[in-house]
Amino acid sequence: MPEALAPRRSLRGRFPFRLGTTSYIIPAEVLPNAEFLAGLVDDIELVLFESQEVSNLPDDRTVAKLRELAEAKALSYTVHLPLDIRLGDPDEAVRRRSVEKCLSTAERMRPLAPLAHVIHFDWDGRGGLPADLSGWRGRLSRSVGELLASGLQAGSLCVEALSYPFELVEPVVLERNLAVCMDVGHLLLAGHSPEAFLERHLERCRVAHLHGILNGRDHCDLAGLADGLLSRLVARLASGAGARDRVVTIEVFSLADLEKSLAVMQGLAR
Description:
about 270 residues
């Protein structure tokens, strides 16, 4: 395991919100990553996937250790639900499997009392949209209703901004009283304004994903954001009565990108 970053890089408790990063910073499983990161950030985004071929869902013993770590280090977790779900699919079997996959993941992570569950309202895995938007939204709403009926809380279910205009799924968010997740990279690459997104959705923004863009590729270090944009976003995310319940995740996937990003964030810390 890499040596811990220098103490000056620890930003625990330095912002009104909880600052986090992902569970894929060092080349290891979820638990070693959490142990490595516990002294550096307030929250860890558990990026989870499960398929017939491969799964990184922690077993019960690992979940128990993650919980012990959280209690010892005043750490919290957010859960990114699996990406390969189609909650609005017209094929009822596909839709139901997607709901069940979300529920099984959430149930496995329930002992960790996650602050939020980030979810994608995706159509084809590439950001495309169906021709029948009304029918798609209706099926999304039905799937969300089934998730909520099984115990997930509306306020913890955060619909992530993807490449399409978020207003297309806003009716489902409002109908089900869901939270939202702003992803700065998704918005910028699609030509949308993160600041406009926050202006419209700040009160519902329970989670924000921050990362830079380099040569058209996102999830790079925060130096890859335009001058001034990051400071404005951080100031906005730190404002309002809901800031203490908000998680701001540096969504990068390497130690080098995290080190650079923490250095950038250090300049904005109180």
